[in-house]
Amino acid sequence: MQSEKWAAYLILVFILVIASFNILSSLSMLIIDKKEDILILRSMGADSKTIGQIFLFEGWMISIVGAVTGTLLGLALCWFQITFEIISFPDNGTFLITGYPVEIVFTDIIFILGVVLLIGFFASWYPIKFISQKYLTDKNI
User: Fold this and answer.
1) This prediction's pTM
2) Which of 32, 36, 92, 99 falls between 20 and 30 A from 126, CA-CA?
3) Taking the domains of the chain in order of start, what are their residue ranges?
4) What is the pLDDT of residues 87-119, one digit of tens each?
């Protein structure tokens, strides 16, 4: 059972890494699209670090909202399964339980949230660190 749990966890982390490319590409396109706005912020006195922090904060907010929403939906789905046994076994009498067993483990939730936020941080940090160098340098003013 533990091996199955870890295998499912690793598969879902891999899916999360693939999905984080969406955040990476969204922030990259946002930086490219907001060149004029970056110039306005520069003319108002914002330095490269401040502008980078604005984009990084936006990426973090996307990750945090996604992580919290996913966690709440997952907990609701688990609660429905525990309470109403939505996914049940056939009624031919061969099983001791009627519904698919689900257990909510608090440490698993914290661990998953940590991994989601860590991957989200790196997906937000990468475009700010490398792609924005082209648009946040002083020579582009």
Assistant:
1) 0.79
2) 36
3) 19-140
4) 888 776 677 788 888 999 999 999 999 999 999
Across 47-65, b (16+ Cβ under 10 Å) vs e yields: ebeebbeebbebbbebbee
Sign of dihedral through CA atoms 74, 75, 81, 86? negative
What is the spatial distance between Cα 47 and Cα 137, in angstroms, rounded to a whole number?
Answer: 9
Q: For residue 102, how far is the Cα from the chain centroid? A: 23
CA distance 136 to 126: 14
Out of 36-40, 83-87, 116-120, which region has the weakest mean confidence (pLDDT)? Answer: 36-40
Return d(Cα 107, Cα 31) in angstroms, integer.
Answer: 37
- The SS3 of residue 88 is strand
Residue 13 makes CB contacts below 8 A (sequence gap 6+) with 115, 119
- Note whether 123 and 21 are within 8 A (CB): yes
